[in-house]
Queue: 2 jobs
Job 1
Amino acid sequence: MILRLAVLALLAFMTLPTVVVIAVSFNPTAILSFPPAGFSWRWYVNVLTYPQFQRAAWNSLVVTGGAVALALPIGTLAALALERARLPGRSLWAAALLSPLVVPGVAAGLGFLILAAALGLLRSRLVLIAAHVTLVLPFVVRSVWVSVRNLDPALERAAASLGASPRRVFFRVTLPLLRPGLFAALLFAVVVSVNEFVVSLFISNRVTEILPVAMFTYVVNYTDPTIAALSSLFIAATFLVIWLADHFLDLGRVFLQH
Amino acid sequence: MKLLLLPALAVLAVFAAALTALFRWSLLEFVPGSLAPGAYTLANFKGVVAPQYLHAVWDTVILAALTTVLTLAASYPVAYALARTPSRRVRSALLVLTLAPFFTGAIVRTYAWVLVLGNTVITWPVPMLFTERGVLVGLIHFSMPTMILILAAALSHIDPAYERAAASLGARPVRVFWRVTLPLSMPGIVSGGLIVFAWTLSAFPTPELLGGGKVKMIANVVKDLGLDSFNWPGAAAFAMLALALTLALLAGAGRLAGGRVT
């Protein structure tokens, strides 16, 4: 009984900010009040018509699209190599590939900033794409690796013995069997990249900045509920993604077993 | 087969180049008013213990320690419920509520706390926004999903037969928890604690927005020096400090958890 109450209170603590953001996003006035004094869509209109957010949304699309399109094949090949190749020191290679996960954002961000400045690439979105590839790659490798491990090589040998070329085996047997891992990898890569903030803050400017950086700048400079509206859109998208993931992936298995 | 690793190693090389550049610049002299650095020097690391920054390092360690302990206490009941509930629907609901903030970006989560801690929703008896208290609340909220997942994984590996055995031998529920469940979940507590501590040491968006410039942690000093004062060498020294602390702690966590981190 006490445990149940404690869990409910803690869940309320975890959800409270989300509830407040959504409530405030419909606030009719620029001065925040809670509970809201009325109902208005004006901050949603503001989000969609603010030029800097439009530009940042486009940048987010380009950066996340580019980074995921690169990281997904690179990570899949690496996961195949980690499981199948006769690698001396396999666990060291795996640790190296996952290492970007443990580097603090400000260290990676400042490092990329210094490197980009040395290469004269500071005004380009290429730096953001390169940084995002390194940051999402560990998630791709880890998700796909689990699927590779569960893949029975006998199925591929069977296809080969029936006369399929190695290329055909890869595209008709291996890749379809890796689908759950690839789907999880895609999900993680998109979520991590879309929300990436710290590293992106260091290597972007007003022209190249992605949405989280634009939102940060707005929060620092203005106090109206525009960011609440944009945050609510993010939250809605997040719940949709989690619901889809739970539906197709069984999140309990993904998060609690390995 | 080995060649398949090459593209990933190329990506890793870019990352290594960035960290090498960071390390090199932490050893270069800052020339005020210029982006070009001077000769090699150790002066930047003396800045880490300079009076105007030492309190940021100190605040970082204190806040990270408090965050770790309070996050553990707040996450354990939720993790226990998640690991032990017999109902698939309750488990699913708990998991979605736990993961939602995990999947919501740092800016959205932190902005939400700006609203809650500012006096718009609740009128707080003591100031919360732009104080250490407020930053601490935000940091705990930020760490809870990670901690819950690690603890729930540890708890779900404990065979409930041990608890039933203790209960059938006459131990009351509280005693069963303290003498059986808690000790058996220790690996999760230790690795979760170390991971949260390491993460919090380099926290950035939470202290930046909830501290409002009045509360500074190491990462905020890196941003101030690097992006506002263009003192890249000074910022690099602080970033190296954060990196070294994090790596040392995670190495410890990895050793204690038998090589299974995150």
Job 2
Amino acid sequence: MLTELLIAAIKVIAVLVVVLSLGLVLMWFERKGSALIQDRVGANRAAVTGLGARIGIPNLGFINTALADPIKMFTKEDMVPEGADHFLHTLAPFLSLLPVLITFAVIPFGDTLRAGGMTINLQAADLNVGLLYVLATIGIGVYGTALGGWASNNRWALLGAIRASAQMISYELALGLAVIAVVMTYGTLDLQAIVRGQGGVWFGWLPRWGVMLQPVAFILLMTAGMAESKRVPFDLPESESELVAGYFTEYSGGKHAAFMLTDFVEVILVAALATTLFFGGWQVPYLYRDGFHLPGGAFLALPNAAVAIFGVVAFMIKLVAFCWLQILIRWTLPRFRYDQLMRLGWKGLVPLGLLNVLATAFVVVAFGGPH
Amino acid sequence: MVPTGYYMALSAALFAIGVAGVVLRRNVIVMFMSIELMLNAVNLAFVALGRGFGSADGQVIVFFVITVAAAEAAVGLAIMLAIFRSRETVNADEINLMRW
Amino acid sequence: MPLWLFGFLAALSIVSALGVILQANPVHSLLALVMTLLAVAVLFIGLGAVTLGFIQAIVYAGAIMILFLFVIWLLNLQAEAGMAGGRLAGKFFGAIAAAALMGELFAILSRAPSGANLEAPAGYGSIHNLAMLLFADYLVAFEVTSFLLLAAVVGSVALARRPAGSAAPPRAAGSR
């Protein structure tokens, strides 16, 4: 009982540490990545100078910027605007950060690990309704944004908050429809089972990833996910050229850091969902529980720990790839106008999602059960 | 194992608090929220009793109650918006004429 | 569910429910109601109705309450000024009536048959079971509910629509 509790605690801490540090790295990644896309150098001025340089602290390149940004944010003065609702103003950033962090509890980052006579499932919480949990937490995530804008006693922040909440609710629907199609294909809501269902190969060489079965749902998920996290091209609620900073105009210091962190952790969340549902999660092509079975007949036996580590590393690589994809899209596409955004959500994605569900239903019944 | 009676007691308490909210508050939106509270108390009672008898019918009823509550909240709030446009108030004591 | 967890959730839901009816600021009331709804959702999950608990969190706490929030914004409701004074007699008797109601309900409902010692049948709260019931035994009610939702959507849009020609932008929090 105690060992189980300890293992669960270790998993939770590991997931949180990885997600939060990846969020920080993404902050830097975004600045350098955008610089790369826009053909400039980007942030390279942060350095350890003065006393630090004299006593020999090395200048570590990118880590400086990655560390300097959060330090800067947390040491800034924390203001609450006059006439604002003090309680809600303080609550909103953390109310916005909490749901996206707890969603990672059900994302599987590896297959089972056999250690010390026990089989540890590499997933912080093994819920058999994992996807419902994800939808629920995404739904709760609207409150932080909405209350942040309202509590700022600022017309433009309120406008940003209204736009943000309406957008998030509309695209939640499209997200849900994409997820339903995946659930119908695999016949289960459990994320670990969905990832396991993506093992194996077709025709001897093509990995059985979800994107082959549900390409439309993948596109829907990416689009709706980026709209949920209010990233460009859907970032009208926080548009830098229109509303100053939209719903988090009146935030400074640690609370602003919390909102920014929410943004990046949502990027990681959308990447994690895309990876888990459509790209095989921790599945490495041709890697099974006992080793590599390459198409051609070659077989390479591997110990269980190595297989698990391969899985975790593969998951991280796919995660970072999708984060990079979102950053790429952000710095390439122009922003949607608000009515175009709503039209895309309701008149474009929702009917597409419904048609996809219908088509999936036909295929599943025709093939007699989930794949 | 928690006896069903405890769940029913909690449901009774939530229901009574909802009733108190409707009676004591004059802000119509807060009265709506108290009504939602009462609906939730009833939902809890349904699920607890359903589990007590081992039947899943309680869950189905709660499913329909949640749906109907959503529909009722939407229409009720729309009515309140329409009233607010002409009366400029949401205090239930002041909305006491059938015509204006 | 263990008794301590039930006690914690029960206390949480009662305190939040009291917060709903006692807070002056309607947005604070709304947040307290969301807390109550989430506590009740966890109670559902503890009772074995896992799917229903999540549906409650997604639909009730995550959508209906946002609807309330939007309406509070549109009406620009401030903290209720008339909460303190006035109508004290009415409030006093209202509180007494509510307490009496609670007492009566306690007395009757606490004697519910304690069948909770039964193990729930396999797959009790699973989405599969719920779906089988909804689409087989209760199909007519299900279809009628969908019509009800359609009527609600059409009705609320028709009722809340601004009469053609007038325009009133939303006002920010606290702007007097």
